[in-house]
Amino acid sequence: MKIIVVGSSNTDMIIKTERIPKPGETVIGGAFSMAAGGKGANQAVAAARAGGQVTFIARVGADLFGEQAVVGFIADGIEVTHVLRDKRSPSGVALIYVDRKGENSIAVASGANAQLAPADVRRARAEIAAADVLLMQLETPLETIAAAAEIAAKHHVPVILNPAPAQPLPPALLEKITILTPNEHEAELLTGIAVNNARDAAAAAENLLARGVGMVIITLGAKGAYVHAADFKGMVPGFSVAAVDTTAAGDVFNGALAVALGERRPLAEAVRLAHAAAALSVTKLGAQPSAPQRRAIQRLCKSGGGAA
Predict the structure, then answer these.
(1) What number of other Cβ atoms are within 10 A of residue 173's Cβ?
(2) Domain edges within the chain
(3) Please, what's the b/e burial string for 114-147 (b: 16 or more CB within 10 A of its CB; e: otherwise)?
(4) Cis ω on the peptide bond leading into residue 165 (within 30° of 0)?
């Protein structure tokens, strides 16, 4: 399946600690590592490993981090013609704390990601028009996301938007979104409805559908996801695993979901496959290093075990 991903690329600097520091607090004893990250790049890698033919549209700095990122994309079989080297801005960097339960706290210096422009996606118009799915998030400028969505809508290409990091979205953009995939916190920011259970998720989904979104999938971690579409409404269970690091779980979910939907799988089956990919990802440290291969995803799906 031809998947276009528009989004960010970062180098993640990870400190694993007993707990995440409070404001003004220093926590000693953490283990340090570096890994490739960025929500867009994570989704591109996840989609490629799940079996998609992926083209990534992004900006990286003309620096070591940028070069390392591109080498990694190529190794995963991702088309990098539209990964642009920005000579004025450094590559994006994320500083990540991960506690002993696998929960994280992240701060991002956007760098070249903030320079990804509408003109950059318009240069890839032909690739977007020929895609099976366009997948995006919100770590790059909103006007660039809107420009890509406009091209996709004109050519009847399904658009998946993972609205993270959460921010208000204009009606004109929401109307071009085929599938919106917020987590419970992002759904609350977009709708004002606190999402604590399936009933709350249904109310938030109804709110978003009334504003023009075609379909809503609200992810609820290990509990699964609430899906609201014309042909399916309800929870799709997730998988219960021992979490090591939840960084990029949502990105892996979206990457695998894009591939499954591009393969025209039934919606509940596609979400189940995406859950399996995300569950496997949290069992490893790091963003892109944790994205599983297709065979591992299928094994977990077929096992029938571990459902939350």
Answers:
(1) 19
(2) 2-303
(3) bbbbbebbeebeebbeebbbbbbbbbbbeebbbb
(4) yes
Per-residue pLDDT tens digits for 15-52: 999 999 999 999 988 889 998 999 999 999 999 999 99
Q: Which of 143, 138, 182 is nearest to 38 (CA)?
A: 138
Q: Is the pTM of this model over 0.70?
A: yes
User: Kind and range of the H or E element at 236?
Assistant: strand 233-236
Polymer length of the chain = 308
Q: What is the pLDDT of residues 128-172, one digit of tens each?
A: 999 999 999 999 999 999 999 999 999 999 999 999 999 999 999
According to CATH, the topology of domain 2-303 is UDP-N-acetylmuramoyl-L-alanine:D-glutamate ligase (3.40.1190)
Look up 251 and say whether it is catalytic: yes
Q: Which of 120, 132, 200, 251 is catalytic?
A: 251
